[in-house]
Amino acid sequence: MGDTPAIGVGMLGYGFMAKAHANAYKTLAYMTWPPPLRPELVAIAGRDEPAVAEAARRYGFADHVTDWRALIGDDRIGLFDNSGPNSLHAEPTIAAAQAGKHVICEKPLGRDAAESYETWQRVQATGVKHMCAFNYRFVPAVRLAREIVASGELGEIHHFRARYLQEWGATDAALWRFDKAAAGSGALGDLAAHVVDLARYLVGEIEAVSALTATFQPGREVDDAVEAAVAFEGGAVGTIEASRFATGRKNALSWEINGAKGSIAFDLERLNELEVYGAGPPSPRSEGFRTVLVTEADHPFWEHWWPAGHIIGWEHTFVHELHHLLTAIRQDGDVAPHGATLEDGYRAAEVCDAMLRSAEEGAREGVTYRGRG
Amino acid sequence: MGDTPAIGVGMLGYGFMAKAHANAYKTLAYMTWPPPLRPELVAIAGRDEPAVAEAARRYGFADHVTDWRALIGDDRIGLFDNSGPNSLHAEPTIAAAQAGKHVICEKPLGRDAAESYETWQRVQATGVKHMCAFNYRFVPAVRLAREIVASGELGEIHHFRARYLQEWGATDAALWRFDKAAAGSGALGDLAAHVVDLARYLVGEIEAVSALTATFQPGREVDDAVEAAVAFEGGAVGTIEASRFATGRKNALSWEINGAKGSIAFDLERLNELEVYGAGPPSPRSEGFRTVLVTEADHPFWEHWWPAGHIIGWEHTFVHELHHLLTAIRQDGDVAPHGATLEDGYRAAEVCDAMLRSAEEGAREGVTYRGRG
Amino acid sequence: MGDTPAIGVGMLGYGFMAKAHANAYKTLAYMTWPPPLRPELVAIAGRDEPAVAEAARRYGFADHVTDWRALIGDDRIGLFDNSGPNSLHAEPTIAAAQAGKHVICEKPLGRDAAESYETWQRVQATGVKHMCAFNYRFVPAVRLAREIVASGELGEIHHFRARYLQEWGATDAALWRFDKAAAGSGALGDLAAHVVDLARYLVGEIEAVSALTATFQPGREVDDAVEAAVAFEGGAVGTIEASRFATGRKNALSWEINGAKGSIAFDLERLNELEVYGAGPPSPRSEGFRTVLVTEADHPFWEHWWPAGHIIGWEHTFVHELHHLLTAIRQDGDVAPHGATLEDGYRAAEVCDAMLRSAEEGAREGVTYRGRG
Amino acid sequence: MGDTPAIGVGMLGYGFMAKAHANAYKTLAYMTWPPPLRPELVAIAGRDEPAVAEAARRYGFADHVTDWRALIGDDRIGLFDNSGPNSLHAEPTIAAAQAGKHVICEKPLGRDAAESYETWQRVQATGVKHMCAFNYRFVPAVRLAREIVASGELGEIHHFRARYLQEWGATDAALWRFDKAAAGSGALGDLAAHVVDLARYLVGEIEAVSALTATFQPGREVDDAVEAAVAFEGGAVGTIEASRFATGRKNALSWEINGAKGSIAFDLERLNELEVYGAGPPSPRSEGFRTVLVTEADHPFWEHWWPAGHIIGWEHTFVHELHHLLTAIRQDGDVAPHGATLEDGYRAAEVCDAMLRSAEEGAREGVTYRGRG
Fold first, then answer.
1. Cβ–Cβ below 8 Å for C281 and A280
2. A108, C145, C230, D336: which one has the fewest Cβ atoms less than 10 Å from its Cβ?
């Protein structure tokens, strides 16, 4: 690694997402060997000085600051990692890009499509590499699914149905995630946005949505659940759901794709597995959904890990994601199509906005992407 | 059984459903012991004489006829069993009731809500017992689910999501199920109607729907798939889907209910199991979805069957259903709430019609039940 | 069915097994169409007159008797069905055969290998068709497994491991199954015998066993559990277990076979499914255990039943089994290899005896079959 | 972490296990916060200089050496981590302990019980902390299982059955794992040893074994599979199996415990889940195996990780294991009972040796532990 150039990382935020990103930078430095670039943790920003100082000590950032603007002016920093709350996505991300730093921003990119579009446009104009942290694209089973769909093995796609279910919504806690000004929306931006990104990544653009939202907790500003029927440009139809009120479901992002010749299904709580039904077994009499344990040496990302059957966890998706971004930076290559760019972040927001409009107006809403050629 | 009174059965149809009903009459006579009434298979009607004669020999009907009207005038018949195609549901069922015969009619009750309403109203006016054959209410696990919901153990219900997926739709065969005049609709009336009935049985009335339909097979008159977001009167929201184009899914009716205190999930292909998540295990640290094998002596309908773990099949739902109907006839009791009446058949049709309207007009549609007090 | 000849059935026993057999005779008469022979339920024998009279009324036997010898002398009876307790297997079965009746006898054939051998030898000498009711050979998924193994698709077989687990053993009830004189053994003859038969049917003859037994219930005469390491003549090794003390396991007969090129696994509580791992999918990257829903038209026995995905239950195995026996009788064909003969009943007993000897003596025991060419 | 004392780590080996241990040292330094001790990677030893130099660069060891003896004499090293092949377990581990270093040694501790006993005895005499790296004790679900058993919630334990199945054995590669001198045994020491340790950890001491072994690959010196019936001192009985010839099974360590009042089951390929059946749900009618997703804040080890449902992987067991060891060192506390000591390493070897003797001699073998009070 003596030959591997370094890249300085400046991080905004020190909470849940920051922990996941910091772990990924540290892990990829030796697990993906040799790494594309050697991350140096330069500085971390947060408003609570004792807390951000502790985070710096914990994860090994050289410095800590209480104003994110200090990161923008820090020449040691080549990559700005925005792991802060939704309301701090746009301005710092744009500023960092305009200062010439590559950027990765947590999802949802903005609190609505307009803010997301603005962020994408202004960052794109700078020419830096940019990524929206839709980390579930980097589950090995999801990448494998993408490859299977792309191969044509499933035939024409007829259905995509997905749900992202959690159970912790029934609480009186005053979290920023329940604050409309800070979060933009509730289960929609937090959970459904992930599903929308996977829908786009796996099946293609969504053309129209018919949605309902529900808020179960009295006094809450944002949606607790969203339910939508969706139609894709390619002809597929399906449903997308997200809820924070699905008792017993911890982090249950599951989806199924049905094509004319085969089907695939996935469940994030068993993320090392992919269910595949398709043409080809020795005898049609023994056809059935195959539980593929996506842990073989020739499976996506497995060159970095362990022998077959030695499963990985949720946090590993960030290792793959940041490895992908550093590779694009090092090679001056494209983040797309496997990494989500800020354009993908914007497009997911456009679909989420259409769901909100549909829910409010009781009508099917078309999805129109701004800036589409 | 010498003491058990007999009831004469006249059946319309000799296909798939007729086989299931005939088997149920014959089986309940000794498996539910003593049976509420002793079914005597009097006559079976169908237009193809050699085929209906063969069916009579096979299932032990004393006579066979080629005009269903002959059943109406047959005084030996006390129960008219309509297992014919959708277009032959209304007129024969009404005629039989008006002739004083109890009636059971296969689902969907009519080809649309209007026809279903007419059938229900005219049959109800006669005072006979009437049932719409939504047999999935008679899966032991479904009845157990209903009891769990009714007990309040799950708390307020937030979500119902269900799908009924089959895979055989990509065919050029000219089946009556693809003929709009004969069937009324496609996956909607055939599959989604079952889901709608279960939604109503388990969670309550549906208030509004936002739906899409799709027809994948070129030239087909009816829908191949329907996708809907739904809202219930009680405040729950969710999705309902049905498709004949879900490759690899054979008869996959699955649903999940999330309540404030617990959840239940079901899959018809594993119909002896119910997944239950709820308050109460010894330690919250070992809480999780329980796979309840619904085969114990104190489970619904199990007094008729086998020791625990000796599972039953799909056809047994008809044994339970007809046992329920014969009990209501014998005791002059109510078919509702556990049996679906023709009113339930009508209400399911009203929801299905709302889905069609929503799909056509691109707007959320309210569900208004005619004849509601 | 007017053309189908009848066969008179005389049954010994009116309990659990008799219910299963009676249901099967009645069901096969119309579900397997046309049936190979038309079963006429002539007479049923049991010592408790009111109970056996009730059973006759319930299942439709023309007569009932309190001494099984009356069945032997009844010329209307062409098939003697022994569904009585283990201690009444040998003498009545031999007597019936010597009276020229075909015989089916519940498992285990005898209380030990000597009794089983004697029964087999004396019945075989009469030339009648004979069957030992190892009904799990007639699960569609088990027959499919046999066909897959026989096809060579799995390659050389390395492992067979199986367990039959129930949970009801901790009881003070004085059942005949706990009485050594009546039952011969406990979990061994009741449960392990089924596993041994499947091992032989699927993999081949067992050569040696190293076993332990345990009796957990104080004062019980028979084994509550048996644990064995086993070696097959063909080179495979594995384990066989059976217990009545496996809390939470209702009727959990599960097994797995590993071959050089593939594997199969089965669980009786999900008897419509077979797990298959094997060469051939389109891409090795999507290889995995396939959950085959064994309910297609071209699956074993499915010509008698329903469309794909409409599952059958435990009791259906008896329909297939008796259909197989009646076919052999009608066509003067062989019961073997798919049906278990009394020789198979004897051989299973020989393996079970070896397990008992091994458990008692603390040594590996070879299995030697008497009368082997 | 400024206040946390450091401990110097010297590692023997740079292969698969070394990668897992190195990752764990690096990860625990920030994921378990504050860590009990701050690991400093001082030096790594291996015979292939370029390879070990690369490993040092990759994982951040300050130095590398080609003779493990250099580690023994290095005063900076407080913990000797033996991740080398089996034949290099005894001598270096003993030497390190005698030099006053704490030791952790990969399993199996020795190539047979005698070597393992010697290692344990000589290390124990030095007074250092010692651990045998049976990492599966540190799966959260396994620890939870131990707590459930210890609580008495399952009642008296009747059964333990376990299998560790892999599929890669059919190879001509000349691995040290196939070399009797280097490895001692095959699937036995590699896989079955893990199972034996879990059996002892969860249920208690094994009293007797009846075993078979098989070698399927022509010319191979060591066993490819072992099959055993086992009896525990506490009265439970069961089976233990291990194989490298279980086609389709990648890293399938699964076990089930049945007690008088409940049962637990586990599968390493879904290591975030524990199946629990036990007394206590709201209604006996909804009793069933609960799939507990062992990812809650109050589950074992989860204070270090993520929100519920965000699963961890195989490698995390090493983080927990080394965290446990460092805590014992820092606090001068006991490694036992949750960590395996070298005594546990020895005892597992004693059981494995008994299996080999049983397989060779065809007799049940008692297990006698040397040095037992």
1. yes
2. D336
**Pairing of the two strands D289-293 and A130-132:** unpaired
pLDDT of residue C283: 54
Length of chain A: 373
**Cβ separation C229–D210 shorter than 8 A:** yes
Residue-level pLDDT at D279 = 54
Residue C149 CA to residue B57 CA, distance in Å, equals 40
Return the SS3 of D285: helix
What is the sign, positive or negative, of the torsion defined by CA atoms of C290, C296, C302, C307? positive
Total Cβ atoms within 10 A of residue D233: 12
Distance from CA of D138 to the nearest CA of A (A): 15
What does the angle CA A14 – CA A311 – CA D315 come to, to the nearest 5 degrees? 60
Closest CA to A249 of B332, C13, B258, B152: B258
Q: How far is A15 from chain B (nearest CA, A)?
A: 25
pLDDT in tens, A254-290: 999 999 999 999 999 999 999 999 854 445 677 889 8
- Is the distance from CB of D137 to CB of D339 less than 8 angstroms? yes
CB neighbour burial string for A205-216, b if at least 16 within 10 angstroms, e if fewer: ebbbbbbbbbbb
| Residues of chain A found within 8 Å of residue C283, distances taken between Cβ atoms | 153
Cβ-count burial B333-343 (b if 16+ within 10 Å, e if not): eebeebbbbbb
Q: How many CB atoms lie within 10 A of CB A306?
A: 18
Least Cα distance to C183 among C133, C123, C124, C224 occurs for C224
* Among the partner residues A159, A165, A210, nearest to B246 by beta-carbon distance: A159
Residues facing residue D102 across a β-bridge: D79
Say if residue D284's pLDDT is above 80.
no
* C-alpha radius of gyration, chain B, whole number: 20
Determine the Cα–Cα distance for residues A100 and A80; give it in Å rounded to an integer. Answer: 10
- Ordered DSSP codes for B278-305: ES-SS-GGG--EEEEE--STTSTTGGGS
Q: Report pLDDT for C3.
A: 80
**Which residues have a Cβ under 8 Å from the Cβ of A180 and sit 6 or more positions away?**
A221, A222
Mean of the pLDDT values across residues C52-76?
98
Show residues of chain D in contact with C288, CB under 8 Å. 248
Q: Using the predicted structure, report yes or no on whether residue B2 has a pLDDT greater than 90.
A: no
Whether residue C279 contacts residue A292, with contact meaning beta carbons closer than 8 Å, is answered with no
When scoring C153, C195, C227, C289 by the number of chain D Cβ atoms within 10 A, the one with the most, hence best to mutate, is: C227
C-alpha angle B263-B265-B271 in degrees, rounded to nearest 5? 145
Dig out the tokens for C201 from the structure. 């049917």
Task: Please list the ranges in chain A whose pLDDT falls under 70.
Answer: 1-2, 279-284, 373
Contact D182, D86 (CB under 8 A): yes
3-class SS at C22?
helix
Helix axes D316-331, D16-31, angle to 10 degrees: 60
- Tokens at residue C67, please? 């001494």
Q: Quick one: DSSP state of residue A215?
A: -
Distance CA A57, CA D3 (A): 11
Taking CB atoms and an 8 Å limit, are B363 and A358 in contact across chains? no
Taking a C-beta distance cutoff of 8 angstroms, is the pair B199, B160 a contact? yes
Per-residue tokens: C224: 């509550």
Q: Is the pTM of this model over 0.90?
A: yes
What ipTM was estimated for this complex? 0.95
Q: Among all chains, which residue has been given the structure tokens 């255990």?
A: C289
pLDDT of residue C188: 96
Q: CA B340: distance to chain centroid? A: 7
DSSP secondary-structure letter at D363?
B
Residue of B225, B229, B277 with shortest CB distance to A227: B229
Q: Which residues of C touch A (CB under 8 A)?
A: 144, 148, 153, 273-274, 276, 278-293, 296, 298-299
Instruction: Identify the CA nearest to B309 among candidates C254, C160, D238.
Output: C254
